[in-house]
Amino acid sequence: MSGTTLLTILGAAIDNDLKEAIAVAQTVDAHLSVVAMGVAPSPPIGEVGAAAALTSVWLETRAAEEQALTARAEQLEGLLAADSVKGDVSDAYVEAGIIADEVGRRGRCADAIFIGPSLRKDPVLGSSVLEAALFETGVPVVVAPAGSPPDLGCERIVVAWNSSFESARALHAAIGLLPKVRHVHIAMVDPKASETDGGEEPGADIAAYLARKGYDVSVDRLAGMGLAPEAVLTRHASDVAAGMLVMGAYSHSRLRQRIFGGVTRSMLESPPLPLLLAH
Question: Could you tell me which residue ranges the UspA domain spans (predicted)?
């Protein structure tokens, strides 16, 4: 899609995540916006004399880390140029308490955010960046297994559908971001007919909407058979050779994780295939 901006945030392990972000951006000739992020130590607190000594060490540590982060950003610029990728690089040295604000501000100026496998495992940045990307930006988040960067030019997707606000947001984000999609599978695990939630034929309403837009749509009502919903969805996406599984993230409270009984967390920790998530 012309003019697409993909944001990625890198922690300490930059090489693999950057390579995967570049591969994702190249699938749709996107502009890749890279942020090298570091977490600043909290200021020292203590008795007056001790605090003064600690403050000196703290300031020296901050200065050294900021300098290293600037050097890392320059290195990233060189890597982007070497791959002839359209993009920009900046650095952000922030305290832990404002990671969400920083990610939110930057994410609102992108079409999607790619979170690489190394960052997801980062004990300091990982969960903070991921939750901020989902809750503070208003744009979809793309994740994938290590070594399998998602193809934003894929033609077939599976949408995990439960008629919720979040699943609708994810679907609309997907069809806006993925320019070559032609085949959409509306997948539901053990759906129940309801007058107030999907009607007597679950999935038929959203399928009709997509068909009017020209998509080839199938409604796939899947039997759970006692399996975890994420296992059913993953197997189905593999069976139909989908390029991406599209999901709403954290229906209702993030603490309750009610989407399909808490699928979001388990899928984020170990994505079995490329995922597009939106809240």
Answer: 155-278
- How many residues can be counted in the chain? 279
Helical residues (DSSP H) of the chain, grouped into ranges: 15-26, 48-82, 99-107, 117-120, 126-135, 165-177, 204-212, 229-239, 263-269
Q: pTM of the full predicted structure?
A: 0.90
Q: Name the token pair of 213.
A: 């837009």
pLDDT in tens, 56-97: 888 888 999 999 999 999 999 999 999 889 999 999 999 999
Other Cβ atoms less than 10 A from the Cβ of 139: the count is 22
Residue 31 is encoded by which pair of tokens?
């502009």
Of the candidates 49, 23, 276, the residue with the CA atom closest to the CA atom of residue 143: 276
- Cα distance between residue 213 and residue 192, in whole Å: 26
Q: Which residue has 């559908």 as its token pair?
A: 161
β-bridge mates for residue 39, sequence order: 94
Work out the mean pLDDT of the chain and round it to a whole number: 88
Domains of the chain: 5-143 (3.40.50.620), 156-278 (3.40.50.620)
